Amino acid sequence: MAAKIRNALAAAWLCSALAPGYVSSQVQARCDRACLEGLVSEHLTALAAHDPQRLPTTSGVKYVENAQHIPLGAGVWPIAGSLGKYRHVFSDPESGQVAAITTITENNIPAIYLVRLKAEPNGQISEIEAQLTRDDDGAILYEKMANPDPVWLAAVPEPQRISRARLVAQVDKYYSGMQGNDPRGDYSFFDRECDRLEDAVQTTNQHTGDTYGHSNDTSFASLSCEAQFQTGFLGFVTRIRDRRYVVVDEERQAVFAIASLDHNGTVRTLPSVNGTSSPIPAYFDVPRTLLGMEAFRLRGDKLYRIEMTLAELPYGMRSAFDSKNSNSAASQFPRPGNSTSLTTPSRPCNRTCLNGLPLRVLRAMLARNASSLPLARNIRYSENGQFLGLDDGLWLTLSNVSIPDVDEYAANFADDSSRTAGYWGLVKELTTPGVLSLRVQVDKDGKITEIEAINVRAEAPKGRGNTITLMRPPLPVEWEGGELGRLGGLFQGNGTALKGSKRNATALAKVAAAYFDGLERHSSKRVPFAAGCVRRDNGALQGNVSCAGQMDGRGQFPNGLSNSTTAVRDRRVLVADRDKGVVLAVVMVDFPATTKGGRLLSETEIVPSTYMVPQLIKIDHGGAISRVEAMIKWMPFGYTSAWGELGLEGKGC
Ligand SMILES: *[C@@H]1O[C@H](CO)[C@@H](O)[C@H](O)[C@H]1NC(C)=O
Ligand SMILES: *[C@@H]1O[C@H](CO)[C@@H](O)[C@H](O)[C@H]1NC(C)=O
Ligand SMILES: *[C@@H]1O[C@H](CO)[C@@H](O)[C@H](O)[C@H]1NC(C)=O
Ligand SMILES: *[C@@H]1O[C@H](CO)[C@@H](O)[C@H](O)[C@H]1NC(C)=O
Ligand SMILES: *[C@@H]1O[C@H](CO)[C@@H](O)[C@H](O)[C@H]1NC(C)=O
Ligand SMILES: *[C@@H]1O[C@H](CO)[C@@H](O)[C@H](O)[C@H]1NC(C)=O
Ligand SMILES: *[C@@H]1O[C@H](CO)[C@@H](O)[C@H](O)[C@H]1NC(C)=O
Ligand SMILES: *[C@@H]1O[C@H](CO)[C@@H](O)[C@H](O)[C@H]1NC(C)=O
Ligand SMILES: *[C@@H]1O[C@H](CO)[C@@H](O)[C@H](O)[C@H]1NC(C)=O
Ligand SMILES: *[C@@H]1O[C@H](CO)[C@@H](O)[C@H](O)[C@H]1NC(C)=O
Ligand SMILES: *[C@@H]1O[C@H](CO)[C@@H](O)[C@H](O)[C@H]1NC(C)=O
């Protein structure tokens, strides 16, 4: 069974991945340094011209932007503006790969732009992997620098070079040292004069008294690379996985690497750098994954210069390309609690049992113990669209749940025809409030085969201690953890009042489909809305506008769900509860930021985005929609759910 799932994942990944990572490539690449640098120039010129057709690509070229596979020409392509002066290029003729750190503008806002290209021996580009770090301050600083520190660019005399394998091994020590950052570790792999840039800011040997990262610490950045690691300060990075050493520039003794930095939220304090330890900044209070593209220059066999930038991804986001050294969240999946969990007795689950099931799962999460659940051997767990183990994510961080029929903002749903159960309610992850939607699927014997969680967390957009800075743009309506009121009798209770209805799960799903069609078309035509239907997004009613009015573009639109959104895709009905007349569903809504239509967002917010929108759709006995409750979660543009990717199995790409 496990093998079968792994095969399914492998099949899905095959569509997107051929290992580009550090492998001693046997390919006799024709493209030398000048040729590779030329490809970077061609790429950037094509980008600024919004014209990918200009590029010499293979027919199956893969395009990835902030870890999402999207069509070449989508994402940043339509909105890229002028190219910056700063251009730091790393070339690896042996593997035919080249990478660059540079700046561009997006809708006129500066951004740091990193890109890796893979050239085939015939000179055609087969992979383009870009990272946009939307930190305009950083991009402006890079432009002030204009050029990389010259130590990066000089050819190192051959006798002073170390081998490819050793370059990679030394860099790998950096990641291993940062992961869980043990203050007693051996950090002698740093050169004494090592310095690091983060978004063009020097964050070592720097005596400005500036705070470091999201913390209030003003001492950390004054330390050397080695002394920083010796504090254990970076231990909030709990895992660095999918490390790919994509460009090994032997001549310049530099490595350009790509890795996923996981922060599982369990580290609660920052150790003392200067007297007192402090609480973990709010940003790292919940599980986060950051994509890091990072360059290293070695002197001898020590790390001498480091240049890095990050972009925010959903926690556990699988790597866009396979890697030799994966240690990935998904590669360890499935990972049930342990063997005892597989022997917990089960019996067929009827509607009563289904109604109680979400709370059983949530209680197991609160207890950090999946063993009390009747898990099927092939149990799959996903969080915000990524597969995780049952000892990760919410299984480490859930701290409080609202109880249906007891607390104000909680309800559960069931569909015995498909043996699914659902939950929607206010929860806490450690100290951060969230609105959690949950789907639990059982098999004929009552064993749980699938658990799907989506948690829209409160974000704090302003001031220090904020949780969204350069990592993701703010939404026009953020939910900052405020009151959501009563979810309302419509969604709560046992549905007695609705007994006897002829609605069934299929009919309900049809109504939901009509709703999503309307959302995609920006037209309420053929969408059965009841008079008086209202929709809330992130807890906010946008003026006194009906559901139909909102869909048609009257009144204010919240959250980018305006007429500038395009596809409403990856539509998943999680549970269709016929007794309550409620569909719990999730969709991905693309906002390509091409700024057609009303501009509800400020300039810095106009970046390509995908909104993951879990929602409750209440459908009355006549089949009309009377209420919609939606939460909006920001995702990188083109985000797809892992469940959708599983569906690719056997279908080709
Ligand atoms: C270290 O802490 C002390 C007292 O809190 C403070 O006066 C000093 O400026 C700090 N040093 C640095 C480098 O932040
Ligand atoms: C940093 O300082 C601000 C202002 O004093 C405070 O509100 C915030 O909680 C502090 N953050 C951390 C992580 O200690
Ligand atoms: C399974 O978990 C239980 C409870 O945590 C523990 O007592 C038991 O040793 C674990 N078994 C295995 C094989 O890990
Ligand atoms: C479901 O099964 C339980 C125990 O087997 C039983 O007590 C309950 O009445 C059943 N509920 C329904 C709705 O059939
Ligand atoms: C986890 O749950 C199982 C089954 O309910 C129980 O036997 C075990 O003791 C629990 N483990 C811990 C660490 O509480
Ligand atoms: C979470 O982080 C803690 C602290 O680093 C670590 O011990 C634990 O193994 C991590 N768990 C997962 C699933 O990453
Ligand atoms: C959840 O929060 C409420 C009130 O804030 C508290 O009374 C309750 O004990 C909490 N439950 C858990 C499981 O922590
Ligand atoms: C369903 O809810 C109604 C009203 O809240 C209550 O009177 C009734 O007892 C409930 N029925 C069941 C089976 O829980
Ligand atoms: C569901 O209801 C629709 C119409 O309300 C009906 O046509 C269909 O046959 C029903 N399906 C099932 C499985 O009962
Ligand atoms: C909202 O609109 C309805 C009719 O369109 C009206 O009856 C109601 O008073 C309005 N409510 C508010 C708060 O403006
Ligand atoms: C989108 O809506 C705005 C007003 O909200 C309107 O001015 C614009 O014409 C609409 N665009 C399209 C393509 O419908």
Gist of the model:
The protein has 10 helices and 28 strands. The chain has 653 residues and is of the alpha+beta class.
Largest sheet report: 7 strands, mixed
CATH class (first level) name of the largest domain? Alpha Beta
Looking at CATH, which topology of the largest domain would you report? Nuclear Transport Factor 2, Chain: A
- Could you say how many structural domains there are in total? 4
Describe it for me?
The chain is α+β, with helices and mostly antiparallel strands and 653 residues long. The chain folds into four domains: 2-147, Roll (Nuclear Transport Factor 2, Chain: A), CATH 3.10.450; 158-322, Nuclear Transport Factor 2, Chain: A (Roll); 326-457, Nuclear Transport Factor 2, Chain: A (Roll); 491-653, Nuclear Transport Factor 2, Chain: A, CATH 3.10.450.50. It is 17% helix and 33% strand. It has ten helices and 28 strands. Strands 15, 16, 17, 18, 19, 20 and 21 form a seven-stranded mixed β-sheet that branches. Strands 22, 23, 24, 25, 26, 27 and 28 form a seven-stranded mixed β-sheet that branches. The longest helix is centred in the last third of the chain and has 17 residues, at 505-521. Residues 1-29, 325-340 and 648-653 have low confidence and may be disordered.
